[in-house]
TrEMBL record:
<dbReference type="Pfam" id="PF02627">
    <property type="entry name" value="CMD"/>
</dbReference>
<dbReference type="GO" id="GO:0051920">
    <property type="term" value="F:peroxiredoxin activity"/>
</dbReference>
<protein>
    <submittedName>
        <fullName>Carboxymuconolactone decarboxylase family protein</fullName>
    </submittedName>
</protein>
<feature type="domain" description="Carboxymuconolactone decarboxylase-like">
    <location>
        <begin position="17"/>
        <end position="96"/>
    </location>
</feature>
<dbReference type="InterPro" id="IPR029032">
    <property type="entry name" value="AhpD-like"/>
</dbReference>
<dbReference type="InterPro" id="IPR003779">
    <property type="entry name" value="CMD-like"/>
</dbReference>
<dbReference type="InterPro" id="IPR004675">
    <property type="entry name" value="AhpD_core"/>
</dbReference>
Length: 157
């Protein structure tokens, strides 16, 4: 299977990815816990059906020490007992923000208030930014049909 579009060979595509990567770096350097960032990226990618990003972020999370059991249960986090209250709040916001077209009003006040109990303003800004960035990456890869499975942990630095 090959991607239908090599985004890096396009002038516009490579510029867009450059800016997305810069935004992603700002989030990665934030105080939002790295494990939470990876869980959120995995969950959004699962919802969006982005095999490439799901592959990448599960491998990067495992490489950073995340357990296989927690990775296996990200899609069923509501029923899993392995996630902290803070992670659960971030995953709820992630789901509602990713499914924004399905939820009248986007992220509910209740979900936001729960996230705000666990994260400060900078971390909330990082969470919202992370969701914007991962959803953009997902759309690029889903539209391009970027194949999944061959990513190596840390491949993009």
């Amino acid at each position: 299977m090959e991607a239908r579009l090599d985004y890096f060979s396009s002038t516009v595509g490579s510029k867009v990815l450059k800016y997305l990567n810069s935004a992603n770096k700002a989030v990665a350097d934030s105080s939002l816990p790295h494990k939470t960032q990876e869980l959120v990226k995995i969950r959004a990618s699962q919802i969006n059906g982005c095999g490439f990003c799901t592959d990448m972020h599960t491998k990067d999370a495992a490489h950073a020490g995340e357990t296989q059991l927690r990775l296996n249960l990200v899609a069923a986090w509501r029923e899993a007992t392995l996630f902290t209250d803070a992670e659960r709040a971030a995953l709820e916001v992630a789901e509602q923000a990713t499914r924004i077209a399905d939820a009248a009003g986007g992220v509910t006040d209740q979900a936001w208030a729960e996230a705000a109990r666990h994260y400060d303003t900078e971390q909330l800004a990082a969470l919202v930014s992370l969701l914007a960035v991962i959803n953009a990456y997902n759309r690029v890869n889903v539209c391009s049909q970027t194949p999944a499975g061959s990513y190596q942990a840390g491949q993009f630095g």
